[in-house]
Amino acid sequence: xxxxxxxxxxxxxAIGAAEAIRQVDNEGVxxxxxxxxxxxxxxxxxxxYLAKGRTLEGLLCRPLDFYDQxxxxxxxxxxxxxxxxDSRTASLDDDERITWEKLLLAVGGKPIFPxxxxxxxxxxxxxxxxxxxxxxxxxxxxRRRAVVVGGGLIGISATEALVKRGLDVVVVEMKERILNxxxxxxxxxxxxxxxxxxxxxxxxxxTVVEVNGxxxxxxxxxxxxxxxxxxxxxxxxxxxxxxxxxxDAKLEMDRGIMxxxxxxxxxxxxxxxxxxxxxxxxxxxxxxxSPIWPxxxxxxxxxxxxxxxxxxxxxxxxxxxxxxxFGVDITSAGxxxxxxxxxxxxxxxxxxxxxxxxxxxxxxxxxxxxxxNIEKSGIIFGLMRDRINVESFxxxxxxxxxGLAFLPRSSWQGQLEAPPELILQGAPSIQxxxxxxxxx
Length: 440
What we know:
Layout: E1 2-8, H1 12-24, E2 30-34, H2 46-50, H3 66-69, E3 72-76, E4 80-84, E5 89-92, E6 97-105, E7 109-111, E8 124-126, H4 130-139, E9 145-149, H5 153-164, E10 168-173, H6 185-197, E11 201-204, E12 208-212, E13 219-222, E14 227-229, E15 232-235, E16 239-241, H7 244-248, E17 257-258, E18 270-272, E19 277-281, E20 286-289, H8 293-307, E21 320-325, E22 328-334, E23 344-351, E24 354-361, E25 364-371, H9 377-385, H10 409-417, H11 420-426, H12 433-438
Parallel strand pairs: 1-2, 1-6, 2-3, 6-18, 8-15, 9-10, 9-15, 10-11, 17-19
Antiparallel strand pairs: 4-5, 5-6, 7-16, 12-13, 13-14, 19-20, 21-22, 22-25, 23-24, 24-25
Helix pairs in contact: 1-8
């Protein structure tokens, strides 16, 4: 089988690439291969699916006829086992071989699963895809107590879903606080208190080393030796880049596949995006992993345009999250804490249940956290994304009346004079991963 464009993966980056390719080339054969049997769906929404807040159809990112409408050969339920860049071939698990001209690896990440005695018992789950959510859903009948291993984004979203399903939940986080990769100490403490008010017990500084019980989970043992009863254990520590194909193809690797500003790897006509790619982070000024959907989609579009012959540079992304756990709005982007180096400034304020913080380096915003009142976070993120020098108005960034009037005329005049559709595309805003992907 021959194809002009081969995309391995079927999530945000893959869809972004396919849409970009079809904007330029409507004739070249375009093939998407996915290990999962489903059309593209929103993985960040699987917790809402588990909580019964979304139907299966409500998870879909694109209409069911998306592949037909875009003349995409979609091969679900198939796995690419080997990629050979020199001969431009890919081998599948059913022994089929595909010859390609341009290749995009958008294979995402795989769940981190620590060594844990007894982890093969019924009732132990990971939580990264739709199959995981459905497996947990099928298991929940008559279960009342759950342990969630991991207090990051995945773990806390799964915790909320389990609480909504009526379970008593204990969160076990190895680090000293929950949501430690996206929040600072103060914001983590506020999130911690919110969870506790919802009835969630949180244990930090420890991890689970053994799953107790017979064939099914009956409890968990911590590294401290303490035990706790449970009849469901969910491992949600995070994900690692799925590097097998990249290593096999001898692509340049660090923590992920190294890509340039065109999302290209060190092999000609081989690209990568999403959780597996180590791409430019504008907050840190270096290539970093940034496993969130908006960056995957934008990186995929960048790769797609370049694959189709339109030179396009990735504008850079950074960690950015907009979430609502147990009724509390939180947004964060870039650095959650300032490095202990010269040139960094921190401005923050707290008022009851609201907390706002901005980190600057040389008068450029490189990090932000908003808890409770997030109304102004979109403008702040826009300044951060556009690398605006805020020296002349940085004392007003957290003022209650801060808005466009404080900004240099050049930073907003073009938007107000542009056509409405361009204003919407360029307006400073921060969106949920769901909104960013579905809204494109």
